[in-house]
Design brief:
Largest sheet: 6 strands, parallel
Order of helices and strands: EHHEHEHEHHEEH
Strand order of the largest sheet: 3-4-2-1-5-6
Structural class: alpha/beta
Radius of gyration: 18 Å
Bound molecules: farnesyl diphosphate
Helix content: 40-55%
Length: 240
């Protein structure tokens, strides 16, 4: 496995797609794919700090995913609960901070409680930040941020001239974290699907064909290695 380099992406964000198709192709129910997907989450979270990743964001459930059949939503919610209950001690021992983004108010109450517990338990950890996007949608996040900033202006705590890109970044759920350098999407789909739209303005994108249950630590290391060899110009000209 590739070791950490100075060109490692600081923040990697992953759209974990293709669980359902992976399972259906094997003649199994879609939820079987989600169970396998959860195993991949453990493996990837385990290896990420060794690759020099400081922040790992995983898109686990979108605002649109609430429209899935009730049974599938139920299975996913129970997988998230189980993941937190099983992993909290290990992640804490590994010095990983966990935080969640998304509209948690519509998640089941027992999941909300587990989320709060996990965030509190791991809040002081420094080796890596694992950010789980649950019930998350970028447009909803931006709408909330704009509403918040408009309220600040109305209340006289800000003027419209105070609003610059840093102020907007600070009003997002990802406040305080570096923007993603690399966004990976599995399963061959070339879409962003309402994920970190503001934050990923200068990210590199890797669209890969494997479905999420087939993703692996070696594959992540390969993609991170390829990222380190790319030149990022942020709209400027080449320094070479
Ligand atoms: C996309 O595949 C995946 C999801 C909507 C759920 C992601 C959840 C996991 C990887 C498992 C558990 C996660 C954690 C954090 C414990 P899809 O169902 O949209 O696949 P399809 O496009 O083939 O239908």
């Amino acid at each position: 496995m590739t070791a950490q380099t100075e060109n490692s992406p600081r923040h990697v964000a992953i759209i974990m797609d293709g669980n359902g198709r992976w399972a259906v192709r094997r003649g199994r129910p879609r939820t079987f794919g989600h169970h396998r997907g959860a195993e991949r989450v453990r493996e990837i979270v385990d290896v990420a700090p060794d690759l020099g990743i400081e922040v790992l964001t995983l898109f686990a459930f979108s605002t649109e995913n609430w429209n899935r059949p009730g049974y599938e939503v139920k299975v996913l919610m129970s997988l998230f609960r189980r993941y937190i209950a099983r992993e909290v001690d290990g992640l804490d021992a590994e010095n990983v901070r966990v935080r969640f983004i998304g509209d948690r108010s519509i998640l089941p109450k027992n999941l909300q409680n587990l989320i709060e517990m996990m965030e509190a338990r791991t809040a002081e950890n420094t080796r890596m930040t694992l950010q789980l996007a649950l019930s998350y949608g970028s447009r909803a996040e931006m709408t909330d941020a704009m509403r918040y900033l408009a309220g600040e202006v109305e209340a006289g705590r800000l003027t419209s001239d105070d609003i610059d890109q840093d102020v907007i970044s600070g009003a997002m759920m990802t406040a305080g974290l570096p923007d993603p350098d690399l966004v990976i999407r599995t399963s061959g789909e070339h879409r962003i699907s309402n994920f970190l739209l503001w934050q990923s303005a200068y990210a590199e994108y890797a669209f890969i064909d494997e479905c999420w249950p087939d993703f692996s630590a070696d594959r992540l290391a390969e993609i991170v290695g390829a990222f380190g060899r790319r030149e990022r110009r942020f709209g400027a000209v080449s320094a070479r």
